Amino acid sequence: MKTINLERQTVRELNQALHDQAIECTEREWEVLDPKGQHNIACGLDQNISVDIKGHAGYYCAGMNKKAHITVHGNVGQGVAENMMSGMVRVKGDASQAAGATAHGGLLVIEGNAGARCGISMKGADIVVKGDIGHMSCFMGQAGALVVCGNAGDALGDSLYETHIYVKGTVKSLGADCIAKEMRDEHIDELTALLNRAGVDEDPSAFTRYGSARQLYNFKVDNASAY
Amino acid sequence: MCGIVGLYLKNPALESQIGELFTPMLIAMTDRGPDSAGFAIYGDEVADDWIKLTLRHPEKNYDWKALAEKIQDELDIGVEWFQNAKVAVFKLHTTDAIAEAYLAENACDVLILSAGQSIEILKEVGLPAQIAETFNLRGMKGSHIIGHTRMATESAVTMEGSHPFSTGMDLCLVHNGSLSNHNRLREELKREGVKFETDNDSEVAAGYLTYRLQQGDTLTEALEYALKDLDGFFTFTIGTRDGFAVVRDPIACKPAVMAETDDYVAMASEYQALTTLPGIENARVWEPEPSTIYIWERSSDDKRG
């Protein structure tokens, strides 16, 4: 295992060392010490490696991740795993706003709470949050699934496309065009698999599914006078 | 973009170290605000029949001693004072109204940065590290302190446009964000008699709070009105005589993180600014909710929201 201490080396040096693994993988296991809330830690990885960040990370941690498994043993700032393509990012603490924003693939697990705009414009990633999520989460979510074991804030799934949302707790309010939907067997299966992959012990039947009412897909000519 | 930091000590034993604890917090927010910085420190209280003013003159060699002697002679009151760079702290055995009227009449080029029993506001244009050095922030003692590092977006980079802004006796405001209805609101407040020094949007928020408090609102009520009347993005931290308050707009895109231990409550725009605090590894760390008013004060130690 290779250890990099961010009190002695810069984030840029760390990220370069991790990027070099994309060309030739010489080390599968990495440990990052003393992150101290610095931004852009472990961004843009493109190799099947595991990275353990021991402490709190700042903004955009694990952004644009491909293939790598990244675990943050602490909290993260805004934009964790933004635009992730594949791999897995696990946050042991809380995440700030815009967790998993625009992510195309892979799995993001947040063991604490996530702030506002969790999964905003997500495009195919799966996100599992053990705690609560903030307002405007999954805004314009296009594909993938968002699982919330706690409660959701205001305007969940506003202007939603086809992301599947599962919430166990309460939803403060639903956004425009987001509605509660029937949990069919295929959804129980999908949720069971997601909870298993995330290592979260919850009963899938206790969740409610939310999805798009598909009323905003096309412009309605009757509304033309509103503009 | 701007940076906000605040530190409120629950443990009075740390009061002699507040400058030492706070300086790295302010400097850590340089990336968010490299053009000006300032802070409001609370402590060294004067008696209730005295008033403490932080005064500033653009000339470093301004004759503060002569001003102090003139006030002493002409108003026939007790005067204590000390100078810190371009700023002087005057403690006067009189009321705020008399002191401010006297200064307006007799020293109109002296700017009053703060007034109260406890507060001192110090701010300048420059890097946070330079400003901490200029005012010897590290050596300061006090019960609580809030600071700001500015990256100007809405108005000029000047001392007057930097934060904190005084919002009344022992009150001040720092702001991260931008207000979109500040021009109209400034005109409305001017009609109500509120005075403004700059075109700065944050000064309008400060003037708004001053006005609400003058109408008899409590701080919580004033902030509830602010959530309704201020349009734009904001994370505010408000310093009060006994503590500080934090409030974010309903969208809450401007960051804020809080940390609490048995010894202190700390607030910053980013967690990076909190990493030098003692015991931060085991502190409770969380983000304040949108549209929620948080107040920590020596008397109550509570959260209202």
From TrEMBL, chain A:
One of its GO terms (molecular function) is oxidoreductase activity. InterPro entries: Glu_synth_asu_C_sf (IPR036485), Glu_synth_lsu_3 (IPR012061). Transmembrane segments: none annotated. This is Glutamate synthase domain-containing protein 3. It comes from Neptunomonas qingdaonensis.
UniProtKB/TrEMBL annotation, chain B:
Residues 2-299 form the Glutamine amidotransferase type-2 domain. InterPro entries: GATase_2_dom, Ntn_hydrolases_N. It holds the Pfam family GATase_6. PROSITE patterns: GATASE_TYPE_2 (PS51278). It comes from the Bacteria. Transmembrane segments: none annotated. One of its GO terms (molecular function) is transferase activity. SUPFAM superfamilies: N-terminal nucleophile aminohydrolases (Ntn hydrolases). Keywords: Glutamine amidotransferase, Transferase. The keyword Transferase applies. This is Glutamate synthase domain-containing protein 1.
